[in-house]
Amino acid sequence: MKPKDKVYDTVVTPLIYRLEQIEAGESISPWHKPWVKDGTENMLNGLGSARNGVTKRQYNGINWLILGMMSDHTSRDYFTLNQLKELTGNSHPVPNEVFKDAYDVVFYKTLVGTDDKTGKDKRIPFMRTYKVWNRDQIPGLPEPTPDVVAPDFNPTTEIDKYISNLELRGGIHIGGDRAFYRPSDDAIALPQDSSFTSDAERESTKAHEGIHATGAKHRLDRKKGDKYENAYAYEELVAELGAAMTCSYIGIPLEQLQHTQYIKSWLTSLKNDKSYIFSAAAEANKAFQYLTGDKYVNTANK
User: Fold this and answer.
1) Per the domain annotation, does 299 fall within a domain?
2) Is the CB of residue 31 less than 8 Å from the CB of residue 204?
3) How far is the C-alpha of 5 from the C-alpha of 233, rounded, in Å?
4) Burial class of residue 181 (count of CB atoms within 10 Å of its CB; 0-12, 13-18, 19+)
5) Residue 289: which residues within 8 A CB-CB, separation 6 or more?
């Protein structure tokens, strides 16, 4: 088995299982759960997202999805084995009973080599998994240091700012009972705020349509979905993930999928091509960064 295929199997198999649970009605929170406060605040820097416990950088792309879907810990801090050894001063910092309960996340980089035939540089993707453990699993860790709180931060107004910064040619239209982005007009339609059942549902809907808008030709020109049989379902997955990343980033808890009708299509595509979820997560991460204007999260998570 090729190293890349081994990575796909390690990562995708549990994600498929989780989606099957959701389709069967056994779970309703696939992308993100509200984290229990652990004494820290980190406004506008991944408030609700899993992060490296040492560097404080939030996990992105497929790693954001892995830890968002598969972990139910109260802390969002994750550590590699070497980090845990250094922090605890213990050569065996992970208790035997939880060693096997590590989370497999993905390290990815592009290497530059030389093409034997042409002599020109060629880009070689390198991918492997490595293991991390949550703060809750490890005794003897130093207490987390509280982060700086932005005094003027309000999560319920941030997404409005993000959408405004897109400078939609057709603007934002409020009213009616549908939410959608119309590419031909470069415009977003949203119901009135009072029509939503909660602040979280309202803001996640805005984020979802904002993510759709990032794919416009004059923005990210998103086209990768065209290679799949159901390009529309692929774009909905990108928007679903991108909206969840955005809400997680500013600390708005999401408890359910908005577009459950696409789960069957997502599962079919994922079982046929395990790179499907990697591609969608990467596209969602680009869209999330574009929407929020955030470049900090586009870093190696190790």
Assistant:
1) no
2) no
3) 24
4) buried
5) 295, 297, 298
CB distance 82 to 90 below 8 Å: no
For residue 94 the two structure tokens come to 């992970």
Using DSSP's 3-state secondary structure scheme, residue 103 falls into strand
pTM over 0.85: no
Mode of pairing for the β-strands spanning 187-190 and 180-182 = antiparallel
Give me the phi and psi of 268, to 5 degrees please.
-60, -45
C-alpha to C-alpha distances, 293 to 249, 252, 288, nearest whole angstrom: 12, 18, 8
Kindly state whether residue 2 falls inside one of the protein's structural domains. no
For residue 176, what are the contacts with CB-CB under 8 A and spacing of at least 6? 189, 191
Cα–Cα distance, 54 to 38 (Å, whole number): 15
Weakly modelled stretches of the chain, pLDDT under 70: 1, 26-48, 147-152, 254-262, 294-302
| Coil, strand or helix at 77 | strand
Cα–Cα distances in angstroms (integers) from residue 35 to residues 46, 51, 62, 256, in the given order: 11, 12, 19, 15
Number of structural domains found in the chain? 1
Are 168 and 160 in contact by the 8 Å Cβ rule? The answer is no
Per residue in 195-234, pLDDT (tens digit) is 988 888 899 899 999 999 999 999 999 988 888 888 888 9
**Is 24 contained in some domain?**
yes
Q: Which residues contact 152 (CB under 8 A, 6 or more apart)?
A: none
Q: What pLDDT does residue 69 have?
A: 72
Which residue segment(s) compose the domain that 183 sits in? Answer: 8-292
What local confidence, expressed as pLDDT, does residue 265 receive? 81
* Residues 283 and 64 sit within 8 Å (Cβ to Cβ): no
